[in-house]
Amino acid sequence: MPAFKPVPPELAEHYLGSFPDDSRIERRRMFGCPCAFVNGNMFSGLHEDRLVLRLPAVERERVLKAGEARAFEVMGRTMREYVVLPAPLSMTREQIRQWIARALDFGASLPPKKSKAKPGVGIAARRPRKTQQDTSKRTTKRPPKGGTKSS
């Protein structure tokens, strides 16, 4: 996996201070970068020194054609529905807030993601582990690996 440049602290502060006051927003870190989610769907984040937004198709096409943004590519893969705005530090917090609000509206329109099971929960967690006693109950020995050698 390639090493990514860390998000500059001043950019992270500028980004996080630009969020609209909305209780639906959940802030998390992905790959060490601040991101925002609504209903389990990521709608905004930072990657290296760029602002990443998830926008509806019509708006995404408009900003790409206008040259305001470009497609978000990471590790050679274009991420569907996401665009990247370069130089977010040159934007005011209000400008970033407006972009985040557009992305939030789109993210909120998507079906909620089901939460993934946490470690230790599920079938494997309910299945009792074999103890040493259980494994010593074998009555027959297994043949050695590779079969038997004939002389």
As residue ranges, the low-confidence spans are none
State mean pLDDT (0 to 100 scale).
Answer: 85
Rounded to an integer in angstroms, the radius of gyration calculated over CA atoms is 24 Å
Backbone shape:
elongated
* Secondary-structure element string: HEEEEHEEHHH
Q: Kindly, what is the distance between the CA atoms of the first and last residues, rounded to a whole number of angstroms?
A: 51 Å
Give the strand tally: 6
Strand content: 15-25%
Strand order of the largest sheet: 1-2-3-4-6-5
The protein's oligomeric status is single chain
Q: List the total number of helices.
A: 5
CATH architecture of the domain at 10-109: Alpha-Beta Complex
Class based on secondary structure composition and strand pairing: alpha+beta
Fraction in helix: 25-40%
> What is the CATH domain class of the domain at 10-109?
Alpha Beta
CATH topology of the domain at 10-109: Aspartate Aminotransferase, domain 1
Largest sheet: 6 strands, antiparallel
What does this molecule look like?
The protein has five helices and six strands; from the N terminus they run αββββαββααα. It is α+β, with helices and mostly antiparallel strands. The chain has a domain at 10-109: Aspartate Aminotransferase, domain 1. The chain has a six-stranded antiparallel sheet with strand order 1-2-3-4-6-5. Strand 2 and strand 3 (41-47) form a beta hairpin. The chain starts with 8 loop residues before the first helix and ends in a 16-residue tail after the last helix. The mean pLDDT is 85.
